[in-house]
Design goal:
With 44 residues, this protein is an all-alpha fold. Helices cover 70% and strands 0% of the residues. The protein contains three helices and no strands. It has helices at residues 3-15, 20-31, 38-43. Helix 1 packs across helix 2 (20-31). The longest helix has 13 residues, at 3-15.
């Protein structure tokens, strides 16, 4: 997915009334990445 495709996706999500964080989560799910878990954060 290119940068332009990601931006278009986020714009469409905003037009649908999706919250910004939820739109990012949806995008991350599509491209196959996820937020670090709390245990992973506490290791640093």
């Amino acid at each position: 997915m290119t940068q332009e495709e990601m931006q278009r996706f986020l714009i469409k999500e905003a037009q649908r009334g999706i919250a910004e964080i939820e739109a990012y989560r949806n995008l991350m799910e599509i491209i196959g990445i996820e937020f670090p878990k709390e245990k992973e954060l506490s290791k640093n």
